[in-house]
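Entry 14: structure prediction run for Metal-chelation protein CHAD. Input pasted below.
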Amino acid sequence: MSEPRETELKLDVEASDLARLREHPLLAGDWTETELISVYYDTPDGRLREAGYTLRVRRDGDRHVQTVKARGPAAAGLFDRPEWEGAIAGPHPEPAAFAGTPLADILDGADGLAPLYTSSVTRSLRRLADTGPAGSRIEVALDRGRISTPDDRVSPISEIELELSGGTPAALFDLARTLGADVPLRLGVLSKFERGEALVRDRLGRAAKAEPVALEPGMSAAAAFQAVAYACLRQMRLNETILLAGRDVEALHQLRVSLRRLRSAFSLFGAVIEDRRMPAIKAELKRLSEPFGHARNLDVYLGKTLPRERERRPDEGGLLILERHLETEREAAHAVVRGVLESREWRDFLLDLVAWIEAGPWLGPDNPNAALRDGPARAFATEELERRRRQVKKRGRHLAALDPEERHRVRIAAKKLRYGAEFFAALYAGKDGTKKVAKKAVKRHAAFVEALADLQDHLGDLNDIATAHTLAQDLARGAPEGAVFAAGLATADTEARTGHLLSEAAKAHEALIDVRPFWR
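Run finished. Output C-alpha cells:
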C-alpha cells in the first residue's frame, strides 16, 4: 500500500496582506475560519527528530487530530511528504493511533513524550474546484498566529498554504503566480515544526549555512537534482529573510554561497536537466544575483583586507579616509541588494524556478537524455565526480606558473568539484550498510573534501587579492586622493603575498590529487 501524502506549496506573506488575499477575485467567496491549537511532541532525547518524523496533536473546535509527518528532504516552497493522521479522544498523544505509522517502531508508546512548543493559528480556509490544469482542486489556507515555547519565546506565523487535493502541482504554481501579481508572496521553506525547532534551538534570525542533502542510492538522477536544488533554495530563502530585515554580512555571504551552489548544480546536472528553458533560467539567475557580488566584495575588503593593512601601517591616515569612503560604497551596494530582494521580478523568478524544477520540460518524454535522467543517481554522480576531478587535475598543473585568469578557471573547477562532493556525499555512505563500512566511507569523504577545501582556501585568498586590485582601480574614479593612495598601498602589500600563496596552492593541488577519491 502506498503512503498517504500531501502536496503543498507554502508561501510567506506579510500579516497586513492576508486580508488582501481574502478579497482577491480568485479567492472571493465563503471562507471557513477556525482556531487551531497544535502541540508538537518529542522524547527528551529527540528520538523523533533524529528519525526524521514529527508528531503533533491539533485541537480543531471540539476535535483532536493526531498527525505524524515525515520531515523529508529540505524543500523550498513545495512540500511533498508522507503523512498519517486520525482523530483521537483528547489533547494528548494516543499510542494506539501510532499503529500503521513509523512511530510504532520508533516509540514503545507515548511514555516520555513531552510538548516542545505550541502553534496557535487562526486559519481561514477556502476550497477551489476546477482550477488550473485538468480542473485541479486546491485548498487555500491563510494562517495567522504564532509559535510559542514553554519558556515564553515567540515567533509569528503569517503564511498561505496551497494544498493540492486533486490534479497536478502545476495548478499550485499557476495560482501562486496570479496571487503574487497583487500581493507580495515569497517561497516558504520552514514548516511550523521546523520554525518551532529553530525557535527552541535559538536559530531563528541567524545566517544559515548549507545543510547536508538527503540523497538515497536508489533514487534517480532527476530526483537527486530536485533534492539538491531545493536544498540550495532553502538556504537562500533563510538568508534572504535576514537580509530583508537589515544588513547582515554573514547572511549575504551565505546567500551568495547558496546561489553559487545552485549554479554549480545546474552545471553538474547539465546533461540531465537541459531543455529549451534552461539557458534563459541560468542567464536570469546570473543577472539578478550579480549585485550581490559587489556588496560581498566590499564586505571582504572592509572586513579582512583593510584590517590587515591597518595592522601593517597603523600610522597611515589615508586608511581611515579609505574606510569611510568604502563604507559609503557598501551602504549603497547593500541597498541595491535589498532592492533586488524586494522586487517582484526576483519573487516571480524564484517561483517560476521552483515550478521548472518540479515540472519543467526536462521531465517530459522529449528529453533526449531521458535514460540518464531516469537512471540511478549514484552511477550519474560517480561519472560526474570523476570528470570534474580530471578537470581540476589538468587545469591545476604547474599552478604556480598560471596567470590570474587561468588560476580563476582552476578555482571554479575546484569549487564545482567540492559542491559535487558535498551534494553527493549521502550516495556513498557505505555499500553494505554496516557501521564499519559507513564509518570508513565518511572518513574517506572527509579526507577528500578537506584536501579540496585547502586548495580552495589558497585559491580564494589569491582571488581576494585580485578583487582588491580591481577595487583599487575603481577608486581612481572619483574617490578622495587619500583613499586612492591608501588603496594603492594595500594593493602593493597584498600583492607581496602572491608568491607564497601560489606556492601553497600548488602544494595543496598535489595533495588533493594524491587523495583517493571517495566514490571509487
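Notes: DSSP finds 17 helices and nine strands in the chain. Will compare against the previous run tomorrow.
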